[in-house]
Each structure stands twice: as structure tokens, then as C-alpha cells.
């Protein structure tokens, strides 16, 4: 058994799994101690500081990472229905509404005790992500139903949309313009179409839009409501979490804004601390998009407490949205009005994500400008920088030489791994 061989060579080993069952844990402990007498076993209880909401947000980041990685896209799939149930069960949420009926029935984890033959320790974690550069890209989120209108059974842009977005991109030339659709309100004109054909119809009015502005127009359309978790769709902020990771968007940049006429979308934005504006106001007065007095600005504590991990010496590459955009395979998207370039970066059965752009020259200019804005990561709008290129940082009173067991329980999971790595065979109790 590989685990036993590593322990016999005096290596620390982590069994990274859910380990909900007491029987499973006892089996591990007994098996290890039988084959490696004297081996100390520690059960690390990972405790998300911000509860279930932190797990849901992390799941969207994971889903974006897997969906945008071509090598993982076909082999890894986030089961939203199952994880909705498991997260609710873990935190014993009284309300367990889901988007579809499910036969999954769980009774929660068996909490570990030292009677199982192991030491029990708790690691408190917050949201954390790997970065090389500062996040400086604002996002303009536009609800699809708010920017298009139906005229003679044909979708076209609302009057004033192009002028308003051009005003915003003039102020934020490297910003991300994103059109979102949660799939709940697609009208009867599209209901008879297959998902792929419906998406093409939804993109047609956006082509004229993309032709007029000097940046890509990104889109995120939910294509399967029945496989998408209830916590992912408005009024929950799951789509914003997914886009935050995918496009490296600073949701709380002074230029970030969510334009919608829908109450659920407004609630989703406000729950993530993103400013909101009614589409009817934005498109009548384009200057309002760059005003600083829009509503919905209270930033949730969870999102102001993100740990940003520099990856210089961790052997892991952070997500690079600019490379993703630059390497997109462009094809011509032709409508009756204009021809623009189009690429789909992710189609995973649950969502369709990609962008429209006027031409390859416009794309290259945008990418070059964005890359010029990126700066080495020293601080990120006051959020925690938990690891630097040559040192590991612990809570202010902790050093790698003096860290105690109590100190270790205050570290993030990434910090704990670094602590073990830097201190050889020292294993926290």
C-alpha cells in the first residue's frame, strides 16, 4: 500500500477526502497503526469560517476552473444537486430547497472524537485563491433580458444600450463587459429550439453590440436549469462567483456594476456587494453608468476576507484569464446585420460561456492593454496576502519556529500545507 510505504519512510501523508463516516476513519487509523506502530494520526476538521455560503462560493470557483481547463472538461463534472444536498446536510440547514426533486438522503457527518484513536484538530479556513498579479478588472454585468427586446418575433437591442456601454468602456477600457442569462425567463419564441440553436438566437442581437465597442462582449448563459444548483442562480450570487474566477473580475472595483430590471438579479448582485442599476435608467442616461453613487455597495465580510496566495514558489500556476481570452479559437459569427468573431470558452452541459468581438485586431489590442495593466501582487484592495514569494506568513504573532497547535488552527488550509512543507516532519497535533 503506497500510504504505508510512505509512512515507513518517515514521510507525512494526507488522506484528502470527506471522511464523513466514523467507521471509515477508524478503519484508516487501525490499519495504519497496525502496519506502522507508533505512527501519530491527526484528523484535521476543516471549518469554513463563513459556513455554507463559503462552500457554495468555492464550488463556483472550482466549477469555473474545471470548466475552463480543456484537459479536465470531459473528465470532471461538478454535481450541483448532490453537493447542494451534502453542503446543506453538513451545516444542518433547515431549508433544503433544490431546483429539482432528488433522492439523495444524507444524515450529516459523524463528528470525529479522540476515542477513534487519533488527535482531532480544527483548521479554520476562508476563501483563498492563487494569484501572480493584482486583480484590477472591473465588470459591467448586463442581464440579457434587460438589453434585448422582441420586435416582430426577432430579438434586437434596446435603444441606448450601445451608447451606454461605450460610455462605460471609455472609462474602463480593460473592463469586462458580460451579458448573463439565468435561463429562467427565455420566452416562448426560443422554447421550441434545442439549446445550441437557442444560444445562437440569443447571441444574434449581441453581435451588433460587439461590433460597436472596442472590447470583447462576454456571455454566460445557463443552459440546463435542472442540473444547476439552486444556490447558483439569482437571487443567489453563484453566477457572479463563477465569472469572478473565470475573468479575474474585481467585483468591488469602483467601476463594477450590474445592470438589470429583475429583482432576483438585483438581489444576487447586492448579496455579492456589487453595485446595481435599473436598465431603464442606465440606457436613458448613459452617463449614469460611470456615476459613483449607485446602490447596493455593502461588501459581505466573506468577500473582504479572501486570502490571496502568491504562487511564485508553490509549483502551481494560477488561473490566467488573459491567456484564456488570447488563446480562444475565433470563428466568424454571421448575422443579417454584421459579422463578428466568436468563440466559446466553455460548454459543459450546464452553461455556455464565451465572447463576441469585432475582429482579431480588436481582441489583440484589448489583450495587450489588459496585460499592461497587470501589476505584481503586493496587496489586493486591502485583502489578505497570505503567502509571498520567499516566505510563508502566519497570523501576526506566529512564526515557523514558534507556531503552536493553537496557532495552527487559525491558519488557512494552504498555510497549513506550507507549514508542514517548510518544517519537514513536524506534523501539527
Describe the structure.
The protein is α/β, with parallel strands linked by helices and 429 residues long. 35% of the residues lie in helices and 18% in strands. It has helices spanning 2-8, 22-35, 51-68, 70-73, 80-90, 144-147, 161-171, 188-191, 195-212, 238-247, 263-271, 279-284, 321-326, 360-373, 405-408, 413-422, and strands at 42-48, 119-125, 128-131, 139-143, 148-151, 154-157, 176-181, 217-222, 257-260, 276-278, 307-310, 331-334, 339-347, 351-357, 384-387. Strands 10-9-4-7-8-14-13-12 form an eight-stranded mixed sheet, sandwiched between helices. A three-stranded parallel sheet has the order 3-11-15, with no helix packed on it. A two-stranded parallel ribbon has the order 1-2. A hairpin with a 3-residue loop joins strand 13 and strand 14. Helix 3 (51-68) packs across helix 10 (238-247). It is elongated and about 75 Å long. 33% of the residues are buried.
Number of DSSP helical runs:
16
Describe the biggest sheet? 8 strands, mixed
Structural category: alpha/beta
Q: What portion of the residues fall into strands of 2 or more residues?
A: 15-25%
Q: Over all CA atoms, what is the radius of gyration?
A: 24 Å
Uncertain regions spanning at least 5 consecutive residues:
94-105, 379-429
The percent of residues in helical segments reads 25-40%
Mean pLDDT: 77
Number of separate strands? 15
The first-to-last residue Cα distance is 24 Å
Which shape, going by the Cα principal axes?
Answer: elongated
Strand line-up of the largest beta sheet: 10-9-4-7-8-14-13-12
